[in-house]
Design a protein that fits this description.
Order of helices and strands: EEHEEHEEHEHEEHEEEH
Shape: globular
Pfam families: DUF5131
Number of strands: 12
Strand content: 15-25%
Protein name: Phage Gp37/Gp68 family protein
Oligomer: single chain
InterPro entries: DUF5131
Largest sheet: 7 strands, parallel
Distance between the termini: 16 Å
Organism: Lientehia hominis
């Protein structure tokens, strides 16, 4: 997995914040995550070596953009045009943008966007039913060629059948919460979403268990290094990665 972080920071830490990782990492180095700034690798996609070749080469994997922040942060509006420009230039790479700020999608959208860039997938996060019903109706009406849903951290059972039935969702990812104070993720919620995806033939991926994982009547406390492996062992992915 290639990660490209064009800017760094999160405006605020909220109960459903999907950017808690940036706070944890910054705390280790004494940084203030409320301050949004460009990362040193901002121009990585278009940087070239002495042979005039792109340093970032396609390796069969997508480029995950702004994984420790949010591509549609208000504070990053002045930089977004440059970021879109790099994405436009690198048609040989496939970029995945995960956001909880889908209502800001049009902020700084390129004039040549049309119905979406073919090398961009936008994924909308919704960690509970309220966020799903607030964000997904907006999400489905936007001009996006490739789109997916992310339940991470998944905080309750979520019904997304009406949105899957639209035929506009190409992938659903679920995962539990990591870090200190992680909230519980129930395997039953994961299975419910997987079954919804199977019903509508939408690819599904169970990414990680999270630190506090319930299966049946037992709650497991799983170390970070084991969370993705344990999710893979569950064997509940559907049409993912094939």
């Amino acid at each position: 997995m290639t990660v490209w972080n064009p800017w760094h920071g999160c405006r605020k830490l909220s109960p459903g914040c999907t950017n808690c990782y940036v706070y944890r990492r910054d705390a280790e180095f004494g940084k203030d995550s409320s301050l949004v700034s460009k990362t040193a690798g901002f121009a990585l996609p278009v940087q070239k070596n002495r042979k005039k070749e792109y340093k970032l080469q396609y390796d069969g994997e997508p480029v995950y953009t702004c994984m420790t922040s949010d591509f549609f942060l208000e504070e990053a509006d002045t930089w977004r045009e440059d970021a879109w420009g790099m994405i436009r230039e690198r048609q040989d790479l496939f970029f995945i943008i995960i956001t909880k700020r889908i209502q800001r999608f049009y902020s700084g959208l390129p004039t040549d966007w049309g119905d979406g860039y073919g090398n961009v997938e936008i994924m909308c996060t919704c960690e509970d039913q309220r966020r799903a019903d607030e964000r997904l109706p907006v999400f489905l009406e936007l001009p996006i060629r490739h789109r997916g849903i992310v339940h991470e951290p998944m905080l309750e059972s979520i019904c997304i059948e009406p949105y899957l039935a639209s035929g506009k969702i190409g992938l659903v990812i679920c995962g539990g919460e990591s870090g200190s104070g992680a909230r519980l993720c129930d395997f039953g919620w994961i299975l419910s979403t997987m079954e919804q995806c199977v019903k509508y033939d939408v690819p599904f991926h169970f990414k990680q268990t999270g630190a506090k994982f319930k299966k049946g009547n037992k709650v497991y406390h799983i170390e970070r290094k084991d969370q993705m492996e344990q999710a893979a062992r569950a064997g509940v992915d559907y049409r993912f990665g094939g």
